[in-house]
Design brief:
Blueprint lengths: L8 H54 L17 E4 L4 E4 L6 H7 L6 E5 L3 E9 L5 E9 L1 H53 L13 H49 L6 H29 L1 H7 L2 E2 H11 L6 E4 L5 E2 L3 H18 L3 E9 L3 E8 L26 H11 L3 E6 L4 E8 L2
Parallel strand pairs: 7-9
Antiparallel strand pairs: 1-2, 1-5, 3-4, 4-5, 6-8, 9-10, 10-12, 11-12
Length: about 425
Amino acid sequence: MRVPRPGSFRQQIVILTTTVTAFAMLLLTLVLQLLLTDLSSRDVERVLEDRADAVVSSVETASTDTQLVIPGQQLDAGVAVYDASGTLVGGSAPESLREEYEKLSTHTVASSTGAGEANRVRVQPFRTSGGLDGVVIVTERLAPYEEAEHYALLVSLVTGLITTAAAGLIAAWISRRALAPVAAMARTATDWSEHDLGRRFDPGPPTNELSALAGTLDTLLDRVAAAIRSEQRLTSELAHELRTPLTTVQGTADLALLRDELTPEVRTDLTEISAAAKRMSATITTLLELARNEATLVEAAQCSLAQVVGEIVETINTDQVTVTVADLDIRLAVPHDLAVRALAPLLENAARLATASVLVSATVGRGRTADIAVVDDGPGVDIALADRIFEPGVTSGSGTGLGLAIARRVARTAGGELTLENPGPPTRFVLRLPVA
């Protein structure tokens, strides 16, 4: 049987069941021991009374009007008979209890008392039909009764442990059987949400908790599918609206470049405009394809991290800062354009805000991911904005505040993450992307 994972609902059920059972068994053992102790005490008193009554009866029968006669067959070990003056007339006192017997030999009231921790003594005064007074003293060892109590305690504890363990195992088995459909539904819903949003459980009218849960999951999947379709439609519309002006910009720039009378400065500007339009068009196309078929596109594409960084460095202004790129011989399991889109905002911000230098490095960490670090020596991110820097519209300087938000979204779409590890200075962002 599988052990429930720590913190799982199954574990909580098992722990609660085991705890309640253990507490109940402990309480039952305590009550049983109290009852056994009281029963043992009653048994000891009854045995002492019966033995004392038997001796008194035999003495009364055998005695004369002038003399106490003690039948020998009634004088068991620990039985002693005294006359009215406290003189021993029959039987014998145990050596360890001789003084106790002598003190009790003149008692005129029947009573029982403890003699040390190992014995119980009974004093039974009597008067024969002939008018002779006497006292019978008997003792009973407590060891057999205490031994029986100890055995009962041991049996109770062992039974309690077995019962508690059995209750825990039964709870684990029952909870696994009961929660197995829930786990299967969760796995199925996760698989459908990633690969087939059109599938549904379709449980019909709810007849129990599981069918009600299935209906709730169907509703949730409907909402997820609607949200994704809405996002895909919006992305498609935005891409369509942006492509037309981009095509116009690129076409105009390319036509202007065909003119011979352009000055070198104008030609340089037009070349940069044409290249930027091409990059933007490629990015829009990639984002559109990602929205339409996210899983297939990400799983099928790979790119070189060195090429991604090199392309970005060529497009940013490095006149005022030095961009140092470490060895980046890593292939990413991400489309080239998506990797550029995720990393470009980091390098652009670093180059814009750095005082003198920007360092780009990467290491392959656990889980087959590349941790790409971008470090700059700029003033750093305002500590008040550190937790919100990836929210749309939040910026610590000039700009729209969309670059980092889009970069994180692209990273997460590709199965990675974008984090601010140190707000600075120096400022350190880490982009984590899957390795091919």
